[in-house]
Design brief:
Chains A, B: GO terms for molecular function: oxidoreductase activity. The structure is a homodimer. By secondary structure, chain A is an alpha/beta fold. Chain A has nine helices and eight strands. Chain A has an eight-stranded mixed beta sheet with strand order 3-2-1-4-5-6-7-8, covered by helices on one side. Chain A is elongated. The first copy, chain A, starts with 7 loop residues before the first strand and ends with a helix.
Amino acid sequence: MSDHEQLKISIIGTGRVATHLALHLHQQNQKIQYIFNRSVEKAQVLADQVHATAIDDLAQINDTDILLICVSDSAITQISEKLSQINYQGLVAHTSGSTALSVLSNLGRNAGVFYPLQTFSFEQKIDWQSTPIFIEAKSVDALHKLEIFAENFSSKIYQYNSEQRLSLHLAAVFACNFSNYCYDIAQQILDEKQVDVDLLQPLIDATAEKLKRARAVENQTGPAVRHDQQILAMHQLMLTNHTEWQTIYQLMSQGIQARTPKN
Amino acid sequence: MSDHEQLKISIIGTGRVATHLALHLHQQNQKIQYIFNRSVEKAQVLADQVHATAIDDLAQINDTDILLICVSDSAITQISEKLSQINYQGLVAHTSGSTALSVLSNLGRNAGVFYPLQTFSFEQKIDWQSTPIFIEAKSVDALHKLEIFAENFSSKIYQYNSEQRLSLHLAAVFACNFSNYCYDIAQQILDEKQVDVDLLQPLIDATAEKLKRARAVENQTGPAVRHDQQILAMHQLMLTNHTEWQTIYQLMSQGIQARTPKN
């Protein structure tokens, strides 16, 4: 296939990643051929938005050029086996940060990984240009094709191996999911005292912003890093009715103090 | 004192909060009279920057109009006692989110709290206009003076009681300090595999940004909220050599799952 020819792209899955990828490709005037879901009704909803054909039988997918697997990690192996059975020959990539390339081993040299490091919600637009995309492939040729394909999304394209990508995903769980859970606990604490949760936003923004200029360990503030035992004790007392938050408070504070010993 | 008269402001302490308050007031052409530190050399460093007099004896501070106590929480009581001994009559406010107004009870009706909710680092500029300031005072008169004073910094001035302010500070520890520790763990995970830590920044920004549009609990993504037990198990296995991170991973994931039960 040449770089300029209109490639037929198909997507397996209709979740958040599938939806954002499909919508963006459609906006870029790329040709989306099939949207697959075991429920053809679910496939139809997304297919209608991107002028594609909804299917619930993988065998139909055989004439597509680029196939993106956007299903839960545990379902990738099964999809891979079915594609092998129908002798699928096109380029195929899974989109999971936490799944090794090796799960596609039965698909030969035309298999790879296309992993956009981003937090996907149905409701919110993705800033693709700032989203790093990680590619990995079984062959130089497949890698090259994935790279050209990735340029539809972002100029930040990186080649990392599976072990590195898995670390990146684990790191993202801490930096994104767990941070967000910290926000959630904070909002619940404020709700209990009828304090406006939006008041925390400038502080949250500043904390994220600081990271652009220094490492997190250097930016750390608060009672733990100051080794202010009085405040630490008072805060734990305030959390008496929420023992699970109290335990998180203790562990996080201990971790911060271990990173920055009292001078 | 009238609203327009040039008030003499003095600051007790030379730490991050003291420094940022003094520098901003000086930029606003406010008159900084004294900078106090038990080490006059330390006081001198900040005093030089804001054209103030460095002192190490609190008795000298008696002729100032507005006195800001910017010391560690545990030292506020001691400062308050000394000010009472010298019969200080001006307006005095501590700047701590985690200390009740009642610690200034020996200073009469001219005492209050001036608490800017912000994360202060020596190296980084403060966006004062977006910084909420929380005031509380023993008398309506003192509250009014603090409000006028706070307008030097921000238009976001809120009157909350001590209990609410303490909750806000506790919430800020979760939303800011603990989030930052999550970033720190993420960076350490990436360092071990030679992956560029800056790759996480767009995700971190997006996570903070999402909070402007929906509650944290609604924004949650990741393997825990998806109840993806396979990934959760794999991640914990990857953390075998970091048992303290492993425990944090478990607790945070359990907390996220308890908030958003499997449907």
